[in-house]
């Protein structure tokens, strides 16, 4: 939370002093390399530098998988990424590769996870989390209700 004191002298309003309080939008982003050739699940701890998240607000983390150095001639197996143990100073990013290592990749399993971690939200945006308790096989769907447009 940021507090700003504004003092002014105005011919129309006279002298005034006001405090304005607002939540700052704090954002960290990065790319984490993982090797998925030796096991089907890999996790790695990411530490926020600088550690400037507020201790009393939740940190949200979004992840996505890519094959940054891939030449495009190999079709990679499906994979999913998620974040665990999220705190104001770090989180664990994990990746699960489908196929149970049926075939080796030409890049020795090199997989990248891009992430953004943030507190608060930009004006007009919505954040939410949804628990998927049983997602190991098959299809699981959940409905997320969004607020009405303002």
Itemize the secondary structure elements and their pairings:
Elements: E1 2-10, E2 14-22, E3 26-35, E4 41-47, E5 60-66, E6 79-84, E7 90-97, E8 110-119
Task: Note the main attributes of this structure.
about 150 residues; mainly beta; Immunoglobulin-like; three-stranded antiparallel beta sheet; globular
SS field, number of helical segments: 0
The biggest sheet amounts to: 3 strands, antiparallel
CATH class of one domain: Mainly Beta
Biggest sheet: strand arrangement: 3-8-5
SS strand fraction: 35-45%
Based on Cα principal axes, name the global outline. globular
Helix amount, in percent? Answer: under 10%
DSSP strand count: 8
Between the first and last Cα atoms, what is the distance in angstroms? 24 Å
Strand pairing plus helix content: what structural class?
A: mainly beta
Overview of this structure, please?
The chain is mainly beta and 150 residues long. The protein has a domain at 25-119: Immunoglobulin-like, CATH 2.60.40. The chain has strands at 2-10, 14-22, 26-35, 41-47, 60-66, 79-84, 90-97, 110-119. A 3-stranded antiparallel β-sheet has the order 3-8-5, with no helix packed on it.
């Amino acid at each position: 939370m940021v507090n700003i004191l504004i003092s002014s002298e105005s011919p129309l309003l006279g002298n005034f002093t006001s405090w304005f309080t607002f939540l700052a939008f704090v954002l960290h982003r990065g790319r984490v390399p993982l090797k998925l050739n030796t096991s089907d699940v890999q996790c790695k701890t990411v530490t926020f530098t600088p550690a400037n998240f507020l201790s009393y607000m939740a940190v949200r983390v979004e992840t996505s998988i890519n094959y940054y150095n891939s030449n495009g001639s190999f079709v990679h197996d499906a994979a999913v990424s998620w974040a665990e143990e999220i705190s104001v100073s770090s989180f664990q990013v994990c990746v699960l590769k489908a196929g149970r290592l049926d075939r080796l990749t030409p890049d020795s399993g090199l997989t990248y996870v891009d992430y953004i971690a943030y507190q608060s939200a930009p004006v007009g945006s919505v954040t939410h989390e949804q628990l998927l308790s049983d997602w190991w096989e098959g299809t699981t769907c959940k409905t997320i209700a969004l607020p009405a447009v303002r």
